[in-house]
């Protein structure tokens, strides 16, 4: 029987009702009491790391979660992290980049309803996460509403519905149906154990640079905002229009970007559009962006791009090196 470590960080799944609304208040051992059936296919040990609303999750917390996995790595076959849904996609991306030589599954899950809700989604999600943590596969994943999603490709798309997450620009890795894990054909190739197992001891990179901001463009945005934001960060991700368009009429974004670049700020460009990514050379305005010293986010999710820049900045101070690291695929996070 596989051994699984359950690490609780709070979130809706562990929340209780108070006069001021839901707040995390349940411990990991209590979560396990709601899913007694897992004892038939896994030996689960529970441990509390945090008990917070995931809106309070910080980059320093990602490091602590990663370190806890490394500390317990040799004693377990897989890991489940219960987490709030609001920032789960950031944490799943961060663990993808921080954990090195990973040869076991790390599965994040949560819920849209507290585990005490009798008709909620928490029980199913937690059972599915434990089940997938028993699989012979390596990587970081999100288990939600019967889907297993590649960690850096996860995106919260619904604020209330149980089907809260989807996989962006990459197929769902697997589905959990009637206690069976059914893999997507593409995932069988990309995540086959023989291809995803590494030689060497697992370890956690111990630095991350949180000074990366995300700016979403809107028509009429004052370019001066880019200048002000650049005073408070080392990196910036800009959600552009469509395939990578920026305004150069009336409110000229290009001058503001050049100013930020000249101040030593690293800038990556992505799109506000949910799927299919950017292609900067398609339109004249996008082609104009290629003349700047910026990094294309290609088909990455904005959240994964932000986190990858935070991780990459901790080890790279040169534009070309940073660009190379961001464009190097890690667990199929970019094409």
UniProtKB/TrEMBL annotation:
Reactions catalysed according to its record: L-asparagine + H2O = L-aspartate + NH4(+)
SUPFAM superfamilies in the record: Glutaminase/Asparaginase
Sites where the protein binds substrate: 54, 85-86
Natural source organism: Natranaerobius thermophilus (strain ATCC BAA-1301 / DSM 18059 / JW/NM-WN-LF)
Swiss-Prot/TrEMBL keywords: Hydrolase
Domain Asparaginase/glutaminase C-terminal: 211-325
Protein's UniProt keywords contain Nucleotide-binding: no
Active site (record annotation): 12, 85
Highest taxon listed in the record's lineage: Bacteria
Pfam family, one: Asparaginase_C
Enzyme class of the recorded protein, top EC level: hydrolase
EC annotation from Swiss-Prot or TrEMBL: 3.5.1.1
Residue ranges annotated for the L-asparaginase N-terminal domain, each copy included: 3-186
Family the UniProt entry places it in: Belongs to the asparaginase 1 family.
Name of the molecule in the record: asparaginase
GO molecular function: asparaginase activity
Single GO BP term: amino acid metabolic process
InterPro entries, A to Z: AsnA_fam (IPR006033), Asp/glu_Ase-like_sf (IPR036152), Asparaginase/glutaminase-like (IPR006034), Asparaginase/glutaminase_AS1 (IPR020827), Asparaginase/glutaminase_AS2 (IPR027475), Asparaginase_C (IPR040919), L-asparaginase_C (IPR027473), L-asparaginase_I (IPR041725)
